[in-house]
Predict the 3D structure of the following.
Amino acid sequence: MTDLLLLPGDGIGPEVTAQARRVAEAIAPDLSIAEAPFGGISFDQLGSPLTDETLAAAKAAKAVLMGAVGGPQWKDAPRDKRPEAGLLGLRTGMGVFANLRPAICFQPLADASSLKRELVEGLDLMIVRELTGGVYFGQPRFIEDLPGGGRRAVDTQVYTTMEIERIARVAFELARGRRNKVHSAEKSNVMETGLLWREVVTDLHKREYADVELEHILADNAAMQIVKNPKQFDVMVTDNLFGDILSDAAAQLTGSLGMLPSAALGAPGTPGLYEPIHGSAPDIAGRGIANPLAAILSFEMALRWSLNRADLADKLFAAVNRALEAGARTPDLGGKLTTIQMGDAVLAEL
Ligand code: NAD
Ligand code: IPM
Ligand code: MN
């Protein structure tokens, strides 16, 4: 059985996963590691961004580590064959509905953020993003021609009680092991899904999690508060689209989008999907300068959440911190190290 399936993907995906692989081989030499084609490169070679074989291999592994997918090369591919469609298919195929996106400001990077040091120093915010529902998947969705000219595009935002309750449960459980505070972000002031979201979260809180502090916040205000005073937050639970946007904003608090890992989890006992939250970064792909830390820290999350090796995860986290303390910086963090040199720096600390 494969312990760790790597899906390097496109753009900087292969560059950053190669460093995560080196780290994995060094810290856990007993892990069995395999690779499979995924994303645009899989579409080019095999006609689909997510083949049945790759999905089956992902479901059979203990953990899956994905690099990044997409890029301008595939902008004219049929919509259901685009790399991003493959990623959505992988998430639903694996049933990983709970996306944990931790925005942690490493102490040595407190000056690397575009925000003032005092605002981000010590930041430890966990965004819990619903990952397999909402407007990303709702039907109907289409673009149609209008008889009088012009076109009409439709996406559908949809959530059920079950979907909201299970993601809220993840947030409350996580909060209990942290600072015991959950912010639930939606747009209950304008959206029906937001209204149901608020009702279901309130209800679950009353029934089972009254010991956890709960605050409802409108998603637009949440975006503002994330840049105004991010340290007020502990766990923030939100839907698929708001979670996508708010987590990119939160990433910048940590110094760079290249720092933020994620874990996507499903039912207990099923494999998790681990991915940096950044994309394939076509503007720097192939130049060997991408920051591999989001990928390396995604592997750290895999050790913790799927591979049952929290001891090694702690060790790896500390090694990353020490590498940063020693001054290791890729260009996105204001430094000069290449992707490989950043991998070297983490390996040296291990
Ligand atoms: P992006 O995240 O790829 O890049 C945004 C900016 O951040 C760019 O300037 C890029 O150079 C920089 N950046 C990102 N990761 C970095 C890293 N590790 N080190 C240094 N700098 C980094 O977002 P985009 O440009 O909007 O999207 C590019 C493509 O990636 C699109 O096709 C998009 O759909 C796809 N995408 C994929 C994923 C994923 O696979 N999980 C996530 C986001 C976007
Ligand atoms: C992310 C990405 C993806 C998303 C895209 C590439 C499908 O932006 O993982 O944050 O929107 O979920
Ligand atoms: Mn995103």
